[in-house]
Design brief:
With 319 residues, the protein is mainly β. 12% of the residues lie in helices and 39% in strands. The strands form six sheets. Strands 1, 9, 12, 15, 16, 17 and 20 form a seven-stranded antiparallel sheet that branches.
């Protein structure tokens, strides 16, 4: 087994997984997105991707939608006017939130990106506090380690007399608890740091530097939940060379929270380390499950999934 790649994306507001929900959720109620739009025309760029389809982008015009008092219904109308192929917007009946969904229910992954997407609360973001719900690119070959830990509650042992003067010992096994994953990557990514830690990420201009500010004491820590995927090559031969793996294992940690640290000292490259904990979650049937969930892909199934080249985007900002 050799941990090779990884990726992650933000959860929906309300603490649910886009992977399990099959949809992306945004804001509820009435919000002001004026700061995410051009001051005069009230336009903002947004990018979407359904499955392995191309990244589509459009300029959403909110001038007739009261951007200072925007409702999910009005936002869905504006976004649907862009006529993105394979993506529809609406209002989720269960939560009243703005919703983005793939038109084809067989499409497993849908993604959304931009400052406007963050302002619309996709990925549980806010303006300047995230760019939506999309996969972070961990297929760069920079993963150094992905160390899992599965926590178990202590076994319970009871000793008693059985009524005939004999000592009886009864032991019941402990239950599975939380799962933890510690990821060390050669890249120190501000993008990933904001996903895990929160804070504000402000793009630079011709005269001002790009800026990242850590989360303040009043920031909501519940805005920082992510789903993490770790991909491991599995080998069956005693002696192997690159490319001789028989399967790719995908371990999915649902609803992780944690923090990042910088590893490395003077005169050396600095790594990014992400220490994350995943508790239990509810599946589509409402049954409580523990992380990680594992998928074992054959070589042909992995190629057909096309996660590395067809789903994960190398550079969303330039897409």
């Amino acid at each position: 087994m050799w941990a090779k790649f990884w990726t992650c994306r933000r959860q929906n507001p309300g603490g649910t997984s886009p992977l399990i929900d099959g949809k992306l959720l945004g804001f509820a109620g009435i919000i002001d997105i004026s700061t995410a739009l051009t001051s005069d025309t009230k336009v903002g760029e947004i990018k979407v991707k359904a499955g392995t389809g191309p990244v589509q982008k459009g300029n959403a015009n909110f001038s007739a939608a009261s951007p200072a008092a925007l409702t999910p219904t009005a936002a869905a109308t504006v976004l649907n006017a862009l006529a993105f192929n394979g993506v529809t917007f609406g209002v989720d009946t269960a939560t009243g939130r703005l919703m983005a969904q793939a038109s084809d229910i067989s499409v497993k992954y849908i993604q959304i990106y931009s400052e406007l997407a963050g302002a619309l609360n996709f990925g549980d973001c806010r303006y300047k506090r995230g760019y939506g719900s999309y996969f972070y690119n961990g297929f760069t070959g920079d993963l150094k380690s992905a160390t899992p830990t599965e926590n178990w509650n202590e076994d319970t042992t009871v000793e008693n007399d059985n009524g005939w003067g004999d000592k009886i010992v009864y032991t019941s096994p402990g239950n599975r608890g939380t799962a933890q994953i510690s990821i060390v990557d050669r890249r120190l990514s501000i993008e990933m740091k904001q996903m895990v830690d929160g804070g504000t990420w402000i793009p630079g201009t011709a005269t001002e530097p790009e800026q990242y500010n850590p989360p303040g004491p009043d920031d909501d820590p519940n805005e920082r939940r992510i789903d993490v995927h770790v991909f491991t090559h599995l080998f069956s031969n005693k002696q192997n060379t690159s490319g001789s793996q028989t399967h790719v294992e995908e371990k999915i940690y649902i609803g992780c929270v944690g923090h990042s640290t910088e590893a490395g000292g003077a005169g050396s490259w600095t790594d990014g380390q992400y220490d994350l904990t995943a508790a239990s979650y509810k599946d589509l049937d409402g049954v409580e499950q523990n992380s990680p969930r594992s998928n074992f892909y054959t070589r042909s199934q992995w190629e057909a999934l096309n996660m590395q080249h067809g789903i994960v985007v190398d550079n969303w900002a330039e897409a």
